[in-house]
C-alpha cells in the first residue's frame, strides 16, 4: 500500500472509530436517569412534606452565574442534591393535596424521550411521528370519555387552558349563530355573550372568561349543599334572560366535594334555550372510565365541550390538560393559526396548533399515549376505582371518631373533614398532619367553614397507605383535642 493510500485509510478508520465512540457531552443524561431512579425508588418511604424552607432554598440554589459555564454532570448532580430538601413527594402514595396525581413509569420515560427528541408538537411538518402519536392518543381519549368520535382534541398545559380553549370555541359558535365573526371583528360591537356557571365553579372558568374578553363576573347559578348546580335555578336564570348568545358552564367533580352537576336536566334546559353547554371535568371526567361510577356523568355526553387534565387522574407528568370540542369546525375556527411559511394541510393531517392556543409546544400527548398503553382499559378503570375506594376507606375511619365530621357525600375521590365543628381546630389538625409528613393534605373553605380536603388520585396509593394516613390524621386530631 502506498504511503498516501495508507494515510487515507488510517484517517478513515479514525473517523469510523470516533463515530462509534460515545459522546461524553451526554454523560449527564445517565447521571439524571440514575438520580431520578434513586428519587423514585425512595418515594414510598420519603416524608411527604418538604424538609426545608424558602430562605434555605434560596441560599443553596442561588449559585453565581459563571462566565465560562460548568460541566453538565456537575450541574445535574448539584441540582439533584440542592433541590432534594425542598421537594414535596406529590408523586408518592400518600399525597392527597390539590388533586395532584403521580406519574406512571411509562409516562415518565416517554416524557424524557420527548425532551431528548426536542420536537415542536405544533404541526406535522415539524414532527410527523409525534403528531401521529398525539392523533392516536386523542382517539383513545374520545373513546374513553364517551364523547363524539369526530370531536376536536387539543393537548394544553392544564385545566386553565383547557377551559380557555373550549370556551373560545363556544364564543366562536354562539357569536357565529348570532351573525358575528369574532375572529375577524373582535368583540367591539358584538352581541353580548352571557356566561352562566354554578356557585362553586372552579376559578379557572372565571379566568378563562376574563382572558376571552367575556368578563370574569359570570352569572352565578345557586348550588345545593354538595356544590351541585341547581337545574331549577338554571332554568329560571335562562328564562329571565334577554336572548343573548349564551354559554353554560357545568362541572364534573366539584373541587371540594367531588359532586357532579345534574347533567341530564342541565343539557335539556340548554337545548331549550339554545345555549352552549361546557363541562369542566378536570378530574371528574375520568369517572367515565369506571363502570361503577360513570353514571355520575349521565347526560354529560350531550355537552358541546369538555375540559380535563392528564396530570391529575391519568397520572402523567406535568403539564398536560385536554380540551375536547364536539364541533371540530368551531374548535379549529377559534384556535387554528398559520403563516405563509407553514405548509397548507388537509383537515385530516394532524397539526397540533389547529386545536390549541400555542403555535409552538412540547408534544404533551406522547405521555398520554404512553400512560394509556401501560394502563390499558382495565388498568385505568382499576386506577379510578382504587382511588375512590381509598377515599371512602379514609372517610369511614375518620367518621368513626367522635368529634370528626365528614361533610360531603363521598361519591368520588374527595373527602371533606371538619374537626370539632371548629375552624381553628380544623386548621390546627391540618397543620399538624402536614408537619408530621406521613401524608399531606390541604385546607379549604366550603360553605363558609374551614375543612380538611383529601384528594386521592395517585396510582401508587394502597389500602395500607389509606389506613396509615387515616391513623396519622386521627393521631393529630387527638393531640389537638379534637
From TrEMBL:
GO terms for molecular function: aromatic-L-amino-acid decarboxylase activity; pyridoxal phosphate binding. Keywords: Decarboxylase, Lyase, Pyridoxal phosphate. The modification N6-(pyridoxal phosphate)lysine is found at residue 312. GO terms for biological process: carboxylic acid metabolic process. InterPro entries: Aromatic_deC, PyrdxlP-dep_de-COase, PyrdxlP-dep_Trfase, PyrdxlP-dep_Trfase_major, PyrdxlP-dep_Trfase_small. SUPFAM superfamilies: PLP-dependent transferases (SSF53383). Its cofactor is pyridoxal 5'-phosphate. Belongs to the group II decarboxylase family. This is Glutamate or tyrosine decarboxylase. It comes from Geodermatophilus africanus.
Amino acid at each position: 500500500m502506498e504511503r498516501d493510500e495508507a494515510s487515507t485509510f488510517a484517517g478513515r478508520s479514525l473517523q469510523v472509530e470516533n463515530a462509534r465512540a460515545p459522546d461524553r457531552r451526554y454523560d449527564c443524561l445517565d447521571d439524571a436517569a440514575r438520580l431520578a431512579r434513586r428519587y423514585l425508588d425512595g418515594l414510598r418511604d420519603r416524608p411527604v412534606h418538604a424538609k426545608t424552607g424558602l430562605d434555605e432554598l434560596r441560599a443553596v440554589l442561588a449559585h453565581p452565574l459563571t462566565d465560562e459555564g460548568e460541566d453538565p454532570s456537575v450541574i445535574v448532580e448539584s441540582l439533584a442534591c440542592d433541590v432534594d430538601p425542598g421537594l414535596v413527594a406529590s408523586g408518592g402514595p400518600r399525597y392527597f393535596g390539590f388533586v395532584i396525581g403521580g406519574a406512571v413509569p411509562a409516562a415518565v420515560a416517554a416524557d424524557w424521550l420527548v425532551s431528548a427528541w426536542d420536537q415542536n408538537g405544533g404541526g406535522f411538518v415539524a414532527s410527523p411521528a409525534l403528531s401521529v402519536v398525539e392523533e392516536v392518543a386523542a382517539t383513545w381519549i374520545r373513546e374513553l370519555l364517551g364523547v363524539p368520535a369526530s370531536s376536536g382534541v387539543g393537548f394544553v398545559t392544564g385545566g386553565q387552558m383547557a377551559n380557555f380553549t373550549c370556551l373560545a370555541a363556544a364564543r366562536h359558535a354562539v357569536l357565529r349563530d348570532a351573525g358575528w365573526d369574532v375572529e375577524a371583528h373582535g368583540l367591539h360591537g358584538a352581541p353580548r355573550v352571557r356566561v352562566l356557571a354554578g356557585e362553586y365553579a372552579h376559578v379557572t372558568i372565571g379566568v378563562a372568561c376574563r382572558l376571552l374578553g367575556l368578563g370574569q363576573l359570570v352569572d352565578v347559578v345557586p348550588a345545593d349543599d354538595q356544590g351541585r348546580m341547581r337545574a331549577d335555578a338554571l332554568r329560571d336564570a335562562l328564562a329571565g334572560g334577554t336572548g343573548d348568545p349564551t354559554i353554560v358552564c357545568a362541572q364534573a367533580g366539584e373541587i371540594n366535594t367531588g359532586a357532579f352537576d345534574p347533567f341530564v336536566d342541565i343539557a335539556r334546559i340548554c337545548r331549550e334555550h339554545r345555549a352552549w353547554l361546557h363541562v369542566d371535568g378536570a378530574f371528574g371526567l375520568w369517572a367515565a372510565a369506571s363502570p361503577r361510577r360513570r353514571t355520575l356523568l349521565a347526560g354529560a355526553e350531550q355537552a358541546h365541550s369538555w375540559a380535563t387534565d392528564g396530570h391529575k387522574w391519568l397520572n402523567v407528568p406535568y403539564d398536560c390538560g385536554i380540551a375536547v370540542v364536539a364541533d371540530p369546525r368551531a374548535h379549529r375556527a377559534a384556535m387554528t393559526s398559520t403563516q405563509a411559511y407553514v405548509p397548507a394541510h388537509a383537515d385530516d393531517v394532524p397539526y397540533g396548533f389547529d386545536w390549541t392556543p400555542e403555535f409552538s409546544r412540547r408534544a404533551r400527548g406522547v405521555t398520554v399515549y404512553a400512560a394509556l398503553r401501560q394502563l390499558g382499559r382495565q388498568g385505568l378503570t382499576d386506577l379510578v376505582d382504587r382511588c375512590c375506594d381509598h377515599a371512602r376507606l379514609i372517610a369511614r375511619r375518620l367518621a368513626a371518631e367522635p368529634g370528626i365530621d365528614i361533610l360531603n357525600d363521598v361519591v368520588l375521590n374527595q373527602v371533606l373533614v371538619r374537626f370539632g365543628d371548629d375552624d381553628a381546630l380544623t386548621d390546627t389538625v391540618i397543620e399538624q398532619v402536614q408537619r408530621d409528613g406521613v401524608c399531606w393534605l390541604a385546607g379549604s373553605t366550603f360553605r363558609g367553614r374551614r375543612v380538611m380536603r383529601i384528594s386521592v388520585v395517585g396510582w401508587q396509593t394502597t389500602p395500607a397507605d389509606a389506613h396509615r394516613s387515616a391513623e396519622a390524621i386521627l393521631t393529630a386530631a387527638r393531640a389537638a383535642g379534637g
